[in-house]
Write a structure and sequence with these properties.
With 324 residues, the chain is of the alpha/beta class. It is built from nine helices and 15 strands. It has helices spanning 41-48, 118-140, 158-169, 184-190, 221-230, 253-257, 272-285, 289-293, 303-311, and strands spanning 2-9, 12-19, 30-38, 64-72, 82-86, 101-104, 109-111, 150-152, 174-178, 194-197, 212-217, 231-239, 261-264, 295-299, 318-322. Strands 3, 4, 5, 6, 7, 14 and 15 form a seven-stranded mixed beta sheet that branches.
């Protein structure tokens, strides 16, 4: 089988597509023939060595994948069944999806809903799954289309672009925050009613004019602090990213004076039942046009090149890797 192998020598991470034996795969009770995997921001950090994602080498990166069951020792899954995987540390401490096969724990797998196929599942991928969890968090906090405008930060990325498409389809008024004018047409096609420059969210007072009923934030840092200051009374922010930093320079005032909720969203260790519910909704609620607008398809041999492009902010939407 072919796989992208990461090695670490003399303080440097080296990525190379190699032929390896299936017997080298780590322990697990299901082997999956992989059709597609995603190339995520975390994968890009791992492949380039610019983030401390990988703790043990050699490693096959790829935090998500979709394909069909090759063999199974678990009666929940049968040969040929379409399945997907996101999270659980796969691609970080367990060999991941940038390979022709993966051997994993059956508990980590989700059956692909009937409305999807492996390619569509990976156009959605970890990013889209996270976006759906964020939308569900807003709904559970009582944010409805009638509540007012919802804002999405990092809107041209994988999580942000899927969130824009989902919210628009569900009837919300959507504002998108992006630092690149080249993505404005793309975001409008996905359903953004207006687009704001991220520089407008670089600093704020403890409280500002109430503007947003809800927010999905992929950035963190000063951007998240500004959103908190601008939330409507009773609003909610679903926070799932830290591209802008891990600090949060804010005060308690939005929480105790405006009853604002800050809801963290994690997709890596999400419980199985919530995963299935989120994927069923994604299959139903993402419009067919999303799959044409939001994906760049590459080969396994191109992953290192595109990992650098992702870190240089040269890609919008999802990058999916077709595994031959």
């Amino acid at each position: 089988m072919q796989a992208l192998i990461l090695e670490h020598n003399e303080g440097q991470t080296h990525a190379e597509v190699k032929k390896i034996s299936t017997s080298a795969l780590p322990e697990g009770n299901v082997i999956v023939d992989i059709n597609y995997t995603g190339l995520n921001y975390k994968d890009a950090l791992a492949i380039t060595g610019k983030g401390k994602i990988i703790r043990q080498f050699p490693m096959v990166p790829g935090i998500d994948f979709a394909g069909r069951v090759h063999s199974s020792e678990d009666n929940r899954f049968h040969i040929g069944q379409p399945v997907l995987l996101t999270g659980w540390g796969v691609g970080e401490n367990h060999w991941g999806g940038l390979a022709q096969q993966a051997r994993v724990n059956a508990d980590w797998l989700v059956p692909i809903p009937e409305q999807l196929d492996p390619r569509k599942a990976m156009i959605i991928g970890t990013a889209g799954f996270t976006a759906m969890l964020c939308v569900m968090a807003l709904e559970e906090a009582g944010v409805t289309p009638q509540s007012g405008e919802v804002i999405v930060t990092g809107a041209s990325g994988g999580v942000g672009s899927t969130a824009v498409a989902l919210l628009h389809h569900l009837g919300y008024q959507v504002a998108a925050v992006s630092g690149r004018t080249s993505t404005h047409s793309y975001l409008q096609q996905l359903g953004a009613g207006r687009i704001l420059d991220r520089d407008a969210f670089s600093d704020s007072r403890p409280l500002e004019k109430q503007t947003w009923a809800g927010a999905i934030d992929t950035v963190g840092g000063k951007v998240l602090a500004t959103l908190l200051a601008q939330m409507n009374y009773g609003g909610c922010i679903a926070a799932c990213g830290l591209a802008g930093g891990t600090s949060l320079p804010t005060t308690v005032m939005p929480f105790i004076l405006r009853n604002v909720r800050l809801q963290g969203v994690d997709s890596v260790m999400a419980p199985a039942a919530r995963r299935v519910a989120a994927w069923e909704r994604l299959a139903r609620e993402l419009p067919e046009t999303f799959y044409q607008q939001a994906a760049t398809e590459i080969t396994l041999e191109q992953t290192s090149e595109y990992a650098h492009k992702i870190l240089n902010n040269e890609i919008h939407g999802r990058t999916v890797v077709k595994i031959d």
